[in-house]
Amino acid sequence: MKIEKFEDIVAWQKSKEMCLGLYLHFKDLKDFGFKDQICRASVSVMNNIAEGFERKSDSEFKHFLFIAKGSCGEVRSMLHLAKDLKYLEKADFDTQHKISSEISKMLSGLIKTLK
Fold first, then answer.
1. Which fold has domain 6-113?
2. Structural domain boundaries in the chain
């Protein structure tokens, strides 16, 4: 299947799902610095996929996918902190960590196709 728009990219779809889940989960959290950081990192994943795709250059797309992958790692790091700070229950941590890991693997696969 040829990808014609960034919305067709499964990694973008999953990252949007992750982003919405994090925003909803942390919407009432009073630790604004934490909430801002994890939400911005999750937005960065989906937006870097979109921006890179729209550049219409494989090398630029690959560059932005690497940035998205880094942001995915940042989200996972913040999830560990959220669990330790009791901002997340273990089940919610497991769900979000799994989604983030899946996105990271998808990004790695996309990057490999662009080499």
1. de novo design (two linked rop proteins) (1.20.1440)
2. 6-113
* Chain centre to alpha carbon of residue 17: 9
Query: Residue 42 is encoded by which pair of tokens?
Result: 């999750």
- Identify residue 73 by its one-letter amino acid code: G
d(CA 68, CA 44): 6
Tokens of 91: 């089940």
Residue 109 to residues 9, 35, 86, Cα–Cα distance (Å): 12, 29, 33
pLDDT tens digits in sequence order for the chain, 115 residues long: 688 999 999 999 999 999 999 999 999 999 999 999 999 999 999 999 999 999 989 999 999 999 999 999 999 999 999 999 999 999 999 999 999 999 999 999 999 998 7
Q: Which residue has the tokens 């990808």?
A: 3
Residue 61 near residue 11, CB atoms below 8 Å = no
